[in-house]
Design brief:
This protein is an alpha+beta fold and 226 residues long. The chain has two domains: 2-107, 2-Layer Sandwich (Alpha-Beta Plaits); 109-224, Alpha-Beta Plaits. It is built from five helices and eleven strands, in the order βαββαβαβαββββαββ. The model has no long low-confidence stretch (mean pLDDT 93).
């Protein structure tokens, strides 16, 4: 049996590395007495497949992993058991069984949404978002593997939402993730800086979700296993 799990990682844990997150989750599953499966060989390991890696410095509202179990388990029991032992800054939101032949998360997630809390008016950010979406190119320095290159972000920016908050405004940008196009949160922050939003104006940023984009439609990884 394989469970696809959606979980929350709060801002208190945003500086954990991906390896630290894997270790934390493994210890939680062990403490919760989840019947997880292990690989074969001299160094057996947890059969847990993460979605797109949450960058160090970001927290996440809806992150995902697939977990192989050695025996069937009710999804609700899994959620209750794991949440009982997770730190207060983490929680499992949902879990559903998936078919053994379901493609891996890393191969199917191709979009992510990033949220920026900005000390700026919502009206001003609305104008900025319209300006950005009307551009034919938006160049920024790559922050990924090819750090010495300049890349065009515009083809990978799908939509931008703006809404007001009490002392700031919220901008949410949906952008390409993974192969063949990957747009990072810090590349988007640089794009904002080039358009008048200084780093000091961004008071928080996080990943609000990961998606599977097909024919201009967006699905959560859990939507695709219903």
């Amino acid at each position: 049996m394989i469970l696809r799990v959606e979980y929350y990682v709060g801002p208190e844990l945003k500086f954990l590395s991906n390896l630290d997150m894997m270790r934390l989750m493994e210890r939680a599953l062990r403490r919760a007495q989840i019947p997880y499966a292990l690989s074969e060989g001299f160094n057996p390991h947890l059969l847990l497949s993460m979605g797109t890696v949450l960058p160090v410095g970001l927290w996440g509202q809806r992150e995902y992993f697939d977990l192989k179990l050695k025996e069937d388990m009710d999804s609700r029991d899994f959620i209750t058991s794991v949440n009982r032992v997770l730190p207060s800054a983490m929680a499992v939101n949902d879990a559903r069984p998936i078919d053994l032949n379901t493609p891996a998360l890393m191969k199917t997630i191709n979009c992510a949404s990033y949220v920026y809390h900005i000390k700026h008016s919502a009206a001003g950010l609305d104008k900025l978002s319209e300006h950005l979406m009307n551009q034919t190119s938006l160049m920024a320095a790559s922050r990924g593997k090819k750090k010495d290159t300049i890349k065009d972000l515009r083809p990978g920016i799908y939509k931008i939402f703006v809404k007001p908050a009490r002392d700031f405004a919220i901008m949410e940008i949906w952008a390409a993730a993974g192969d063949p196009v990957n747009i990072r949160y810090d590349e988007l922050a640089e794009m904002l800086a080039q358009n008048g939003i200084e780093k000091r104006d961004i008071i928080d940023m996080y990943r609000s979700g990961s998606y599977i984009r097909q024919d201009e439609l967006f699905y959560s990884p859990l939507d695709k296993v219903r």
